[in-house]
Amino acid sequence: MKFDRLRLNGFKSFVDPTDLVIREGLTGVVGPNGCGKSNLLEALRWVMGENRPTAMRGEGMEDVIFAGTSRRGARAHAEVTLTIDNRERLAPASVNDADGIDIVRRITRDAGSAYRINGKDARARDVQMLFADASTGAHSPALVRQGQISELINARPKSRRRILEEAAGISGLYARRHEAELK
Ligand code: ATP
Ligand code: MG
């Protein structure tokens, strides 16, 4: 699956609507310290279902909402939309009938997160599974945070195995088996 564009609104420092078109061959985002480069990657993780505040460098999930500055008030919501180019029909069967897939995550203060996949309400689980099968996703080894390499080296065998399973694209299968066993 190919990322096509990322739209942010009220997410961290991206208080105004921002539309990032991810063109073929994009290899880097450059800018001065604090301009929001890491926030962009966090938005990508977040819309794919990341639910650990620490992975978003925050204490609580609502810390992703624009917190306000001396000149601008805080926001009540943050919303990120990820559009996936599905012209090659590589998406899981449940959403594989369209050329593009829009995933929207919105968080409202005191009301938590809501997701939509192509305009339909979805659960966090649905979004996470969509990416788990494609070996991308919030915990994907394709997204390497600062400090993550040393974490991998120092990891216990069990957690290192989880990272390898994620890379091999089989963690979606494990998650489904776990759900089936609970039913
Ligand atoms: P560096 O080059 O140092 O890695 P960067 O381009 O990766 O910098 P980020 O870490 O993405 O920068 O952005 C940090 C900025 O985002 C800081 O100015 C911080 O105040 C701002 N920021 C983070 N969370 C919020 C929030 N909830 N509301 C408003 N601003 C925020
Ligand atoms: Mg950074």
TrEMBL record:
Name the record gives this protein: Chromosome partition protein Smc
Binding annotation for ATP: 32-39
Q: Which gene is annotated as encoding this protein in its UniProt record?
A: smc
User: What family name appears in the similarity comment?
Assistant: Belongs to the SMC family.
Q: How does it assemble?
A: Homodimer.
* Entry note about domains: Contains large globular domains required for ATP hydrolysis at each terminus and a third globular domain forming a flexible hinge near the middle of the molecule. These domains are separated by coiled-coil structures.
General function of this protein: Required for chromosome condensation and partitioning.
Highest taxon in the source lineage: Bacteria
What stretch of the whole protein does this chain cover? 1 to 183 of 1149
| Subcellular localization, as worded in the UniProt entry | Cytoplasm
